[in-house]
């Protein structure tokens, strides 16, 4: 099953990447933490807006 | 004799500087000129047709905006020797890394579709069927990378950048009144008052100036070219020249449509080319050739931006200096994005307008993140050392990033809710 083995290989690779980049290398100062938090909130609001638009289209 | 030898010495000094620049030149010029892609040409053509020369002053403001953002990628690439995707993974961890990589892939692929839309509609004016354009472009872009040398690829890309200047003779051929351009265009003004529609056009012009793929592309190109810390001043100059050139081309497009099509509503650059052909055959032809070239340049850069990013993270060989058999995954992803995007344009009844609009919405989910990461990475003393942002650079960069984030977000939202700024 070449497809199954390819998927397994890809999953292994993704796991390896996740392990390699588990710890952020940039110094997590207060400013960096605040910037990342603001980014999370921004993206969350944006996703909510897109979902709202999608619901509007469906209705 | 003394004067002659001094003159010769100065000439040699400047000539050596030019030669050195020609070696370093490339990433900044290519990315900036490619920024005037099919979507960009449409925006500038529509701006000129709607407001004449009145927004030229605003385009001039975009020179420092584009420069300050893109020069940061030069420093980051030359110092860390890592592409933007790898820098994000390493700096902020796997979550933000995957978010950026997947988002970049989606935005790039959708933008690539819009480049194909621009190229097929441009050549359609000359009677070339869309499938011929798609096959021809794919073949041409394959030939550009197949020889396994970054240098060759870059010089061919620079040739297409030069073709982007075709709008300049086009502008002279419509005989614009220079005094009017100076009077209306160089003095800041809000034509018709500051209303929702004008705001939409301003946002669209900013939205086309900085795109997420540009950050990823230039940093990866700097790394692939092998630029070092000592090359940073030339890299900055290259970026400045590119940002100057891209705005100059934009201004000439505005002059063309502002002179001939003022008051006409333009939906696409190909429509502008068709309209221009009715009044001046050659100007319309130049517009169509320029649109094709813009789409091609955009496609060249965008398809590479994704392949570089995936290569960096998955650990594949990912350099244009490698042959296909040495970097099969890098070239496979390059051709896969290219071919699939081209095929979408050929599907009868494909929702191309929806795709064009969707690009702007998805782009605003990536652009703020990429810009914030860029600023934070440039403040990372551990990796950047002496090339860290200074306070002045942080103030300028921070202001520009906040302005771009706010305006591009509003632009994205206005795409979702078109009546918001009417």
What does this protein structure show overall?
The complex is a heterodimer of chains A (59) and B (422). Chain A has two helices and no strands. Chain A is mainly alpha-helical and 59 residues long. The relative contact order of chain A is 0.06. By secondary structure, chain B is mainly alpha-helical. Chain B is built from 19 helices and no strands. In chain B, 52% of the residues are buried. The mean pLDDT of chain B is 86.
List keywords for this structure.
heterodimer; A: 59 residues; mainly alpha; 2 helices; 81% helix; 0% strand; flat; B: 422 residues; 79% helix
Outline of the structure:
Chain A is built from two helices and no strands. Helix content of chain A is 81%, strand content 0%.
Q: For the record, give the distance between the C-alpha atoms at the N and C termini of chain B, rounded to a whole number.
A: 71 Å
Tally the helices of chain B: 19
Category by helix and strand content of chain B: mainly alpha
**Low confidence ranges of chain A:** none
Give the % helix of chain B: over 70%
Instruction: Give the SSE string of chain A.
Output: HH
User: Tally of extended strands of chain B?
Assistant: 0
The coarse overall form of chain A would be: flat
Note the quaternary state here: heterodimer
Q: How big is the Rg of chain B?
A: 21 Å
DSSP helical segment count of chain A:
2
The biggest sheet of chain B, with number of strands, parallel, antiparallel or mixed sense and barrel status, is:
none
Beta strand count of chain A: 0
Helix content of chain A: over 70%
Q: Overall pLDDT of chain A, averaged?
A: 84
Q: What is the H/E order of chain B?
A: HHHHHHHHHHHHHHHHHHH
Q: Give the strand content of chain A.
A: under 5%
């Amino acid at each position: 099953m070449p497809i199954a083995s390819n998927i397994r290989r890809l999953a292994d690779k993704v796991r390896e990447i996740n392990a390699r980049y588990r710890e952020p290398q940039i110094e997590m100062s207060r400013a960096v933490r605040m910037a990342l938090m603001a980014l999370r909130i921004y993206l969350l609001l944006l996703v909510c807006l897109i979902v709202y638009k999608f619901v509007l289209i469906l209705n | 004799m003394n004067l002659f030898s001094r003159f010769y010495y100065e000439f040699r000094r400047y000539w050596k500087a030019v030669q050195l620049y020609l070696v370093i030149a490339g990433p900044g010029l290519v990315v900036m000129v490619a920024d005037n892609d099919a979507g960009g040409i449409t925006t500038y053509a529509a701006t000129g047709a709607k407001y004449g020369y009145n927004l030229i002053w605003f385009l001039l403001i975009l020179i420092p905006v584009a420069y300050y953002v893109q020069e940061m990628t030069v420093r980051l690439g030359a110092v860390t020797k890592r592409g933007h995707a790898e820098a994000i993974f390493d700096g902020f961890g796997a979550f933000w890394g995957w978010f950026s990589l997947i988002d970049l892939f989606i935005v790039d692929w959708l933008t690539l579709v819009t480049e194909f839309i621009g190229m097929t509609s441009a050549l359609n004016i000359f009677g070339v069927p869309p499938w011929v354009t798609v096959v021809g472009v794919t073949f041409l872009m394959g030939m550009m990378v197949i020889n396994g040398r970054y240098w060759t690829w870059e010089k061919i890309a620079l040739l297409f950048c030069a073709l982007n200047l075709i709008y300049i003779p086009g502008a002279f051929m419509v005989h614009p009144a220079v005094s009017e351009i100076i009077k209306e265009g160089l003095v800041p003004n809000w034509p018709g008052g500051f209303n929702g529609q004008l705001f939409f056009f301003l946002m669209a012009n900013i939205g086309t100036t900085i795109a997420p793929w540009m950050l990823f592309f230039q940093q990866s190109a700097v790394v692939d070219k092998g630029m070092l810390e000592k090359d940073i001043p030339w890299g900055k100059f290259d970026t400045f020249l590119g940002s100057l050139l891209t705005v100059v081309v934009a201004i000439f497009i505005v002059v063309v449509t502002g002179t001939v099509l003022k008051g006409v509503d333009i939906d696409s650059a190909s429509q502008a080319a068709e309209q221009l052909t009715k009044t001046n055959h050659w100007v319309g032809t130049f517009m169509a050739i320029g649109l094709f070239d813009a789409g091609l340049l955009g496609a060249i850069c965008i398809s590479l931006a994704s392949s570089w990013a995936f290569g960096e993270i998955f650990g594949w060989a990912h350099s244009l200096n490698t042959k296909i058999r040495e970097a099969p995954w890098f070239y496979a992803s390059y051709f896969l994005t290219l071919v699939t995007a081209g095929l979408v344009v050929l599907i009868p009844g494909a929702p191309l307008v929806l795709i064009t609009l969707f690009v702007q919405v998805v782009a605003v989910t990536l652009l703020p993140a990429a810009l914030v990461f860029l600023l934070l990475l440039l403040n990372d003393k551990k990796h950047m050392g002496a090339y860290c942002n200074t306070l002045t650079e942080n103030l300028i960069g921070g202001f520009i990033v906040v302005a771009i984030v706010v305006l591009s977000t509003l632009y994205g939202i206005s795409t979702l809710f078109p009546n918001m700024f009417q």
